[in-house]
Amino acid sequence: MEHITLLIGIVIITALVFDFTNGFHDTANAMATTISTGALGPRTAVAMSAVLNLVGAFLSVEVAKTISGGIIDEGSGIRPEVIFAGLVGAILWNLLTWLAGLPSSSSHALFGGLIGATLVSVGMDGVNSDKIVMKVLIPAVAAPIVAGVAAMVATRLTYRLARGRDDQETAKGYRAGQIASAALVSLAHGTNDAQKTMGVITLALITGGALAPDSDPPLWVIVSAGLAIALGTYLGGWRIIRTMGKGITDIQPPQGFAAQTGAATVILASSHIGFALSTTQVCSGSVMGAGLGRKGGVVRWSTAGRMVLAWVLTLPAAGLVAGGAALLADQGNWGVTAVAVIAVAACAAIWAASRRKPVDHTNVNEVETVPAEPVGVVTAAIQAVAPPPAGPVAAAAGPVAAVSSTPSATPAGASAATGSTS
């Protein structure tokens, strides 16, 4: 019994470490566009997001119950060692994608880790495949598409409503709207992602006999998970904030407002019905949709392609790492110790690698000089059916130039660059 208690304690600490990495990995979801447009300073933005993530953790437990009694069958012989191995796989994938600056899904890293470790230790009987399909895979495909389409429509409507008005006056209003919508996204993130760690800790307590099956998370679990994700959020995942705010498309205040409002709506709706979706995928889809929604806007499809590739690889990659960790952890105390030592060493190596080219609040809005990317096929198709920008340049350019070149994007890009340096 003493061994079980110690092991459960190790699992709880590891789960809170994952929650911490989830916090700084996903800060970009709420604050990347707000920071990139200058609506809020970097430090102020992450502090506000941290507080609202903490508040959101107390608003619902539906997603936590999906984790603790949904994708993994708690009555199939799952042991704390399995959960520990799953968390190790999720943490390492989170850190690797953070090092690369890719906004991959912390949620899918967790799901992949738990599924991979369970398959190795228990087999298919330990996994509820129907719930994985209904509550993980289908939302993973549908949510970013829905959020992207909503953001694209909202962006077009926003620019249409502001037509003929002074740009500086409308920019101030949209920056205020961005702050409000970013706060809503942060609150929504707390209601979804903080609960995933609550669910894992609750699952560990159930498998260790400390809680009855189908129990809700105890209050101390809710508080500790909320504090861990809030602390991680406050530290800021600056590498991913740079990618989300500057690497996918050039975001202007109206686009940022539309993207964040659409993302918050999708996340809150999913939390209400217990869908443990990826907030990262939702917010990234919204940013791409907002980029497509502005006439002359260009989505950098090379960056978006790398991001989508990371999404596809997250479940199997985290599962493979967790499966290997589960094989070792199943050997007993020495195996669990070996997994812990290897995990700490790997985390330290990733941190050391990140210090070679640090990104923080002082340089998060700086973008490395890269060759200009041509308009992608999707962007060109969207622009082809959109009304051409008003003015002599559009009139003189002709239909071919309106699609193949981006003259209207140049002033916006220039103004964005000027704003980022002021």
Coarse shape:
globular
Give the count of helical stretches: 16
* Element string (H = helix, E = strand): HHHHHHHHHHHHHHHH
The residue-averaged pLDDT reads: 78
Give the domain tally. 1
Q: Proportion of β residues?
A: under 5%
Beta-strand segment tally: 0
Please outline the major beta sheet.
none
What does this structure look like?
The protein has helices at 2-36, 42-56, 62-71, 80-99, 106-121, 129-161, 167-207, 219-235, 238-247, 253-273, 279-293, 301-329, 333-354, 377-385, 392-404, 409-421. The protein is mainly alpha-helical. The chain has one domain (2-377). It is globular, with a radius of gyration of 22 Å. The model is unreliable at 369-373, 375-379 and 381-422 (pLDDT under 50).
What's this, in brief?
The protein is mainly alpha-helical and 422 residues long.
Brief descriptors of the model:
mainly alpha; globular; 422 residues; disordered C terminus
How are the elements arranged and paired?
Blueprint lengths: L1 H35 L5 H15 L5 H10 L8 H20 L6 H16 L7 H33 L5 H41 L11 H17 L2 H10 L5 H21 L5 H15 L7 H29 L3 H22 L22 H9 L6 H13 L4 H13 L1
Helix pairs in contact: 1-2, 1-4, 1-7, 1-8, 1-9, 1-10, 1-11, 2-7, 2-8, 3-7, 4-5, 4-12, 4-13, 5-12, 6-10, 6-11, 7-8, 7-10, 10-11, 12-13, 14-15
GO molecular function: phosphate transmembrane transporter activity
Main location: membrane
Keywords: Membrane, Phosphate transport, Transmembrane, Transmembrane helix, Transport
